[in-house]
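Single-chain item
Fold in token form
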Amino acid sequence: MVAMVLTDGQIEDGEKLLQSLDESKLKVNAALWFYFPDRENWKLVFSLPEVATEGPRAGYEKVQSVLSKVKDPLGIRLADIMLVRPKSDILGLLRSAIKTGPGISRIRFSKNVVNGQLIEDALIYRLV
């Protein structure tokens, strides 16, 4: 079982990976850690337009390429990452409650109900 606590290391590594994705010129519309209570784990969720246009495999290949080039080893594996379409249900739900600019934020969004749906926990870096 994966710990239910999002660690400072995960938060730092997620931000570093987002910075690396930005530097690689990938367009990241959304980036956040999201807790899935039914699976009892956290996923680093990214929204890339490529997922909608080229399919998830192309998106994962691009993220893996960037992940493999990060200078400081991150505690994030591709298995920790979930890619979603820009118009996914999760993002639509979150966007109805909060938006960020194109930069990198750290907004904790815990124990909130949005449109009748409980958001157990999330840490939002970007949601545009």
